[in-house]
């Protein structure tokens, strides 16, 4: 990607990117976001360019952006089409906390907010290191299963930032033997028998409900799980835990004492 001058008309194609851009103080430069960009409040007032995977090329082009920030969740044909029209596109393919740091750094450089980005990165790393040290000092490592959805059961394996959060907080991911986000069956879940269930509040993308937790609490085949019998469950905001944005550090500080039973 080549940017010939500092961009002042930015379109974000993903909620995570929108949160990063706002954190960098670029509110007045953001001219378009997706229908699912619901945080911070300022994102609600921005022009909508379609859904996460259903971006309208026409709406994007009409906003005359000098920078579009895309992600791996976007339709790649759409992204390539936007690029072919001569619009600079930064592609944020983030699968780890380090990836989020890199996004802050690169977008800070591109948008002329590098000092702000460095300040944010430094603060987040200090917070992460504090929780990590507390987690390393915690001898008992409870087994934690992070569940994204229940029909079918969709869980976080290794190579995800959810796996990182569990590890940093002092736990062990029940599905660290699997890569990325995976579907697991009832039998696999029972065999893992996690000490703690960390369950999304809903399907994400601005639509939260308690159906996932209710499923685990009421499914007879899961009634013998250690996490359920000992009532060790954690409900996490879907819009936070599934977005590669700065609120993950808030979540880390929230779940760490719960995972350690403090």
Poorly predicted parts:
none
Any idea what the radius of gyration is? 19 Å
Specify the overall morphology. Answer: globular
Total DSSP helices: 11
Percent helix range: 40-55%
Strand content: 15-25%
Mean pLDDT: 94
Distance between the termini: 47 Å
Features:
262 residues, alpha/beta, five-stranded parallel β-sheet
Can you describe this structure in just a few lines?
The chain is of the alpha/beta class. It has helices at residues 15-23, 57-62, 76-84, 97-111, 114-137, 161-169, 186-192, 211-218, 226-229, 238-241, 247-259, and strands spanning 10-12, 30-33, 47-48, 67-71, 89-92, 143-150, 153-156, 172-173, 181-183, 196-200, 202-204, 207-208, 233-236.
Account of the 3D structure:
The structure is a single chain. This protein is of the alpha/beta class and 262 residues long. The chain is built from eleven helices and 13 strands. Strands 6, 7, 8, 9, 10 and 13 form a six-stranded mixed sheet that branches. A five-stranded parallel sheet has the order 3-2-1-4-5, sandwiched between helices. It has a two-stranded antiparallel sheet with strand order 11-12. Helix 6 crosses helix 11. The N and C termini lie far apart (47 Å).
